[in-house]
Write a structure and sequence with these properties.
The complex is a heterodimer of chains A (242) and B (217).
Chain A (H helix, E strand, L loop, with lengths): L1 H4 L2 H8 L2 H23 L13 H28 L2 H32 L8 H22 L3 H27 L20 H45 L2
Chain B lengths: L1 H19 L2 H18 L3 H7 L1 H16 L1 H9 L1 H7 L4 H30 L7 H25 L7 H23 L4 H31 L1
Classes of the chains: A mainly alpha (242), B mainly alpha (217).
Chain lengths: 242, 217
Amino acid sequence: MINFLANPARFMSATAWVAPAFGVLAALLFVIGVRDGLFHSPAEQFQGETVRIMYVHVPAAWWSLGVYTFMAGASFVSLVWRHAMADLAARAAAPIGATFAAICLITGSIWGAPTWGTWWEWDGRLTSMLILFLTYLGYLALVAAVDDEEKASRLAAILCLAGFVNIPIVHFSVEWWSTLHQPASVLRPGGSSIDASMRAPLFTMAGAYFSLFVALAIAHMRASVHRRRVEAARLRAAGAGP
Amino acid sequence: MKAIIATFWRDVALLWSGGGGALAPLGYFIGAVVLAPLAMGPDRTLLAAAGPPLAWVAAALAVLASLEKLFQADLEDGSLDQMLLSDTPLEALVFAKGAALWLVVGLPLAFAAGPAAIALQAPLERVPVIIVSLLLGLAAFIGAGLVGAAVAAGVKRGGVLIALLVLPFFAPPIIFGASVAAGQDIDAALALLAGCALFGCVLGPFAAAAALRLQAE
């Protein structure tokens, strides 16, 4: 699979329909998820209507971590096999993951203001997410700062893997402070404690975020391949000229 | 082994030369420590509660100020190519450079943190442990700093970029270090700081050397 997609031409023909298909799927899931989350799921006993922010907030948190994990995997493949498409995949994923992390922080802040009575709290999970966001920003800044595109990708891949090692350390070190944030309620040993009426829209939204990520990342990768082809054609034309 | 020791002393000499290059982070550190109480107000109880961890913030900033030139000069003047040509693995030479930075910049910073912590109203008996914590913490900072400095070595005026890159890596040591400075869970925090330092010393040179090989291509 990894070898098959290493060839840009094969990648292009194999993914021609992936981005639009996942884009449509994402739109569909967002419509269903937002409808169920806003209208067909109950308000929560203690949090009231603000609980609905969860349907935007929690999938963003999940996938900001998921996207970083994907980037670390792509970076590893890129460094080990000098895989051109893995380079592009990691670079395409970074701005999407950064946006998910930003959405998570912003919606969390909006939810925290009425529920905790504060816009920001230096609690373990908030701080971890903020540092993940900073890690994304560092990656994007490095890619933007290095002129040579291929070198930028490889250097960013090293930084990405170093950051991947760092994130769990950050997580456990900020857990050290006693936290205000409620403990995990879905992904925890002993099964999910969240009611089915809320779980369904939550997972629908998680699917929507994932589809959106796939659609945007593939579209970005395809655009990069097209851009490189245009550049190569221009160079050939310039070389062939008088 | 000879090349490692030679690189170490070369970097010590380079860091000392050039208009007090090693003293600049120290000056930065003292400046930050002086500014903190001016911003917080001279209230003794407030400073005693919140002051000592500020020595850690100042130390982190001072290390950042020393990272930009670490590999940039080697890349520009061809020293890096010589290092790649030598039989000694680049990782070991990078480690030697990091050790030199720790000796020339880290050691004075850690000892300057003693008087700084007293000025920030830390109790006297806590000062030695703050110095020890900074010796460990600065090793962790430098380990992370090697990676940041190596991936950004080819970027002109990369100082601000390096600061952004290493910020997430500075978070765990500063949490444990501030805990020591504030006098909470000192033993556990010191053990964890030592872990961060070992981690930085082992992984930092490997990641930095991989980046430097790319820079030299």
